[in-house]
Design a protein that fits this description.
The complex is a heterodimer of chains A (349) and B (349). With 349 residues, chain A is mainly alpha-helical. Chain A contains 13 helices and 4 strands. Chain A has a 4-stranded mixed β-sheet, sandwiched between helices. The two termini of chain A are 35 Å apart. By secondary structure, chain B is α/β, with parallel strands linked by helices. Chain B has 2 domains: 246 residues, Rossmann fold (3-Layer(aba) Sandwich), CATH 3.40.50.300; 73 residues, Alpha-Beta Plaits. In chain B, the strands form 3 sheets. A 6-stranded mixed β-sheet of chain B has the order 5-6-7-3-8-9, with helices on both faces. Classes of the chains: A mainly alpha (349), B alpha/beta (349). At the A-B interface, helix 1 and helix 7 of A face helix 3 and helix 4 of B.
Chain lengths: 349, 349
Amino acid sequence: MAEPRRPRPVVQLTLMRLRDMMREPGALFWTFGFPVLLSVALGIAFRVKGPEPVVAGALPGVTAQARDTLAQAGVQVRWLDQAAAKAALRSGQVAVVLVPPERPGEPITYRFDPARPEARLARATVDAILQKAAGRQDALAVRDQEVSEPGSRYIDFLIPGLLAMNLMSGSMWGIGWVIVEMRVRKLLKRLLAAPMRRRHLLFAFGLARLVVIPFEIAVILIFAHLVFGVQVAGSYAALGLVSLAGAASFAAIAILVSSRAQNTQTVSGLMNLVMLPMFVLSGVFFSSANFPEVTRPFIRALPLTAMCDGMRAVMIDGAGLAGTLPCLAVLAAWGTVSFVLGLRWFRWG
Amino acid sequence: MRADFALWRGRARHAIATRVNPSSPDAEPAVLCRGLRKIYEAGRGSGRKRAGAVLAVDGLDLSIRRGECFGLLGPNGSGKTTTVEMLEGLLQPTGGEVKLLGMDWAHDESRLRERLGVALQETRLPEKLTVEEVLTLFRSFYQRPRPLETLLADVQLEEKKRAWVIKLSGGQKQRLAIACALVAEPEILFLDEPTTGLDPQSRRQIWGLVANYRAHGGTVVLTTHYMEEAQRLCDRVAILDRGRLIRLGTPAELIAGLGAEHVVELELEAGVGQGALDEATLRGLPTVIEAHLSGEGVWTLAAVEPEQAVPALRTLLQERGQHLVRLVTRKATLEDVFVSLTGRALRDG
């Protein structure tokens, strides 16, 4: 004889979470606005530009002929005196300085900083042009193939990483921080004092994330598509699965991190402790292939690495469900262990 | 208070149908605890002393009758909140036994939760939910919630129905917290410092709510450090100090236990006349049985007949050439009982 209008606890708890978030402009910005701004900033900073011209300096005494040869081959040449040349080299305005021979018959000198990649490139370019003009023949026949297509640009690498990072932050802040805040406010205790089932609360947290996640992904994907032409090479189902697994795994980690923290400062510290190393190591912004070989297995075992790899496998390499299994396995392992430990250590009061 | 008679009558009928008749000799007490103890381990229990274990409640025996309003009275740190939270099943006792309505927490938690109403000390309900949404959330937890409109009417928040919690005044927030406790016609209502920090008018409104609830047979367990509140609301009062029960009785009994129902407070002009008053002299006045000097230089005399004591006091002061700054006679309160039992004022903590 239960009245038909009796509200359902899971629905009400989920609504509580969603309302709390939707009515907090700050939360909305960090969830939806910030990742978009970040992708704009990084997309512009690393946008594909035409090849940078090589800029070379020349001291008085370098022949006009040499200068013309270089200029014709596309090198910008600036006449500089000794002091100006030194300053220009130091500040990177020129990558290499041509120093004329002191006595006829001596070689021309290339002055450059070999620690700078663009300086080594400039030296090689300048040298090749001058040698060719002096009559050097290529001994080996070669052919160039230039590549600049969607999928190989920095923005194509960045967007899957941003998606992964955003899902991680969403789960960590949206669950970990919120749990501790509810504990501080004694709201957790108050809910327990009512005949609320604990699993309903946890379930509602998950459900609220489930409602928000499609929007979190869609905002970034649509934006990246419209502005940068970023494509999803693989299936949306696979992308959804990696997203869900990642968000769930980080939700479990959030429960673990928040299980005992008694104030929000502690939990923000703990969450930064968990997230910051992964921002750096897991290859959100730059490939983690640059780290030493011995650290690779460790980096690959991190949940954010798994999520980034899974996202990129789907979006760039066009992987299907099968291709994401290794990533899903790593995420499932983290999620399960964190959830079990989190529940065991969890404090309501 | 508004007359929601139909509702409250319904409540009373329900009570008769489901409860043991309180007047029958085998009636279970509403709350029973024996040898209740709580020790906070070192380094745990935020806000308390971190070093070393703290004995918060030290062997408490209480039996609270159905339909009674029972007050736990004591300064901050006396163990009131720890005691009620153990009774409410929110804190695990270190030792002792708790029975509510004949049931215990280990076996009957879910049934008990349905039948209790709890307002914790300072719960901060979700700020960006409306009054209506908060009540709907709490209604969702119970099998038989009362209608929303009735709840709103009970706590006089009909007009604030769509207001966010954060926009409510202190008194309105507290009334909402009590409405959350009253969602399912509880048989026992626990109120932990329900009026602390409220203005006198809000306080009186809360007292009205409690009176209304009690008028229909509900049992109330409340903690307070306001004497007036205990005297006005409670049938019986337990005075706690440092985790122990130091007196138990009706407010009238406790005051009668002082041996004198009147109090004379006096303050003298400093440095005038010969010498300071002393306890022995003041006790020598007719019908004065006790004299205390507070830190602020105010003498408090317990007098059986102030009509005899005050003229004698005036004569004494004239002889000594001393001048009164202030002289007050009033009825003794529970505050005086506490001072006489511990030598400290309640608010001193």
